[in-house]
Design brief:
The chain is 22% helix and 26% strand. It is an alpha+beta fold.
């Protein structure tokens, strides 16, 4: 199943674009997606953590991604 992932901040820099298409198996969970992204884009290993929102809401790691879900990677935020 091909999904579109939107990225912000450092995640956008790691991907080299603000949106990518990513191929996953049907029934892939958020936890599995994070692992697959990290394997495909090793730059994510440098991040302490990153969050994934689905359809503009945070979801649990065990959420199974649907083909029409909007996936957004939200990197850690720092401020001062």
């Amino acid at each position: 199943m091909n999904i579109k992932i939107v990225a912000f901040g450092i995640a956008r820099d790691i991907f080299g674009d603000s949106e990518i298409n990513f191929n996953i198996e049907k029934g892939t969970t958020i936890a599995e997606l994070k692992e697959q992204i990290t394997m495909s884009y090793p730059g994510f290993k440098k991040l302490v953590s990153f969050s994934i929102a689905v359809n503009q809401s945070y979801v649990p790691e065990e959420y199974a991604i649907e083909s029409n879900d909007e996936i957004v990677i939200i990197p850690p935020v720092s401020g001062g």
